[in-house]
Write a structure and sequence with these properties.
It comes from Trichonephila clavata (Joro spider). The chain is α+β, with helices and mostly antiparallel strands. The chain contains five helices and five strands.
Amino acid sequence: MITLRYSPKPWKTAVVLPILKPGKNPTAPDSYSPISLLPVLSKLAEKIILARLNDHLETESILIPEQHRFRPRLSTTHQLLRVVEFIKKGKNRDECTAAVFLDIQKAFDKVWHTGLLFKLITYKIPPPLILLLSSYISDRDISVKINRTYSTNKPIKAGIAQGSILGPVLFNLYM
């Protein structure tokens, strides 16, 4: 896979389990979060790809220093402490402090593959890795599992699999 820069088709079919969001109406389709279960071999390959991608991102300082989520050796707790410290400093100087928090609905589902690949090129990700990631995100299918019943496979034209190892980092790069 790594040498050929190709992600095998059987590794690109996700079984999606709809998980009911807390306190939501179970009869409304948008009350569920789709969690993708991916083949074990795919997840192992993703770990190798992620290590190579993270090496490049760190070496080239591509991600902003404030980005702590889904990064090695960093934690969102560190960022939370920075925000608290910033608020305390403002309060000590009698300054007004405001914060804006965003929650993008169905964020992973909206990633445009061509746009993501363009950004990877812009970030000077090595071409062999771009070819591999292009193969990884394209030509994917899902099958929805409810109880013991599976739907027929449906092609995915956009988005990044929730539950994947690469998904969060690819989403960060896309944003």
